[in-house]
Amino acid sequence: MAIFPQTRTSVPPPSAATLPLPRPAGTTRLPSLRHIGPNWYASVMGTAIVAGAGAALPVDVPGLRAACTVAWALAAVLLLTVLTARAGHWLCHRDQARAHLMDPAVAPFYGCLAMALLAVGGATLTVGRDVVGAQAALAVDVVLFAAGTAVGLAAAVVVPYLMVVRHRPAPGTASPVWLLPLVAPMVSASQGALLVPHVAAGQGREALLLACYAMFGLSLLATLVVLPLVFSRLVHHGPLLLALTPTLFLVLGPLGQSTTAVNQLADAAPGAVGAPYVSAFGAFAVLYGVPVMGFALLWLALATAMVVRAAREGMGFAMTWWAFTFPVGTCVTGAAGLARHTGLDAFTWLSVALYVFLVGAVAVAGARTVGGVLSGALTAAPVPPRPATARTR
Asked: Which pTM was predicted?
């Protein structure tokens, strides 16, 4: 399903851009792949974070490790499946693929490719090693981390560039989706922290650690530029379209992921930098993470209220429901990191509560996605989503 902005300049409406074009005689294509956009990688991210967040929980639950292993295996299969489908999309429907890049509502989802690679790689290192072995898990993670980081950094530059020179969205059309290519380097920062201890001590280990901090800063500052635009759009133009309302949960991504990153980087700092910096990084993890987690909970309450309102207005299932998964998972790992560094039971129970929500959200979104694929509803040509009612109610 494609996601559509409410207004746009300089580009054709996505409802026109995404309609099938006449097929030249003598050619073949796979119609079911035509509308498989980059947003489908969100299902990989949401499934993989169940494994990664479950492994990070500061509690010992019988059977949890086995369940996380199943989630990792499913995420790996999903990654291969979506990669194959997207390759077929580019090979058989290049006109549609180019239309996606020129659509300011769809292009940001290319950040999901990077995060899917990174999430599966990190889950392989933390959970998948029980199945494939430590050395194989490390090798897989290194490959996926390198590929995901390269794609994420490219998306963080290319997508904003296209928005400036080609998309030029109209004022008041800012969307939480715009955060997707910007948060990908933050995922690299947190996943790179897991690889720091595996690099030989010396320049290489320190360089990787500081590169992760640089990606943390890159993503954080970019988020601080975009987030006010998103809130301003909500205040001045009212609720999002019903199908887009779940994307409000995407704001939790940079908040939870940045908290996760600073805590994991603090854990990786010993042996990579000198003692004064180790202490500073540990203090920074708490001094930064606690306030940001507080804001994340505020936004979670606001986004939940907006989703409840949209549900009462008739919001149906869409692929945007996957926004309920990965961003919440980052808050799970962020709260778990704060529990490690503060020793507070409050953060432990917060991480557990958010994880329960995460598992439920993945189960619902996964079941509805499978049903939509089997029925063909999710692979058919998209239709513009229905707007919410005016804010006079």
From this structure: 0.88
